[in-house]
Amino acid sequence: MDRDLVRDIARGVIGQVTPRELTLFRRRSDAFFKDPEAELNAARKSLRARPKEELLAWGSSEAVVALTPFALAVVQGVLVSLTESLATSAIDRSREGVARLLRRVLRRPAAEEATPNAPGTTSAAEEPLTAEQLGTMHARARELALAMDLEEDAALQLADALVEELRP
Questions:
Q1: Which residue of 63, 101, 123, 140 is 20 to 30 Å from 86, comparing CA positions?
Q2: What is the pLDDT of residues 128-155, one digit of tens each?
Q3: 3 state SS of 111
């Protein structure tokens, strides 16, 4: 996965959820990419040592530092899922294009065949994320965050911020 893309989106998520953490974001993200499991384990340990009401505030710098590895892991997981979904869509579109090409080569065009990327149409790469895709990404982000032992409220905050960051 493109680390710069993950970092860029996660920075936006952190900026929405807890802007004070941005001063430490680069250092924490560098540490995450060197050893994700160690960073997540340290973050989990930090979260377990805190009272629940302090965790929900995300206000103190120590509690906030624990959020960066989770945000990076959630963003990375959601982007992997989205990449797989887009790849499947591209394969399906490629099959359709190859079928049209085959018909042209064999000089047997389909009656409904239209010119690909005719004026006024967009390719899959240019289409914004749909509400359904954003909903799927929200659910995946929440699921990943919960699987990493984040509380429901924190998981929802991350998922909401991620979707907001990716909204067109």
A1: 101
A2: 888 998 999 999 999 999 999 999 999 9
A3: coil
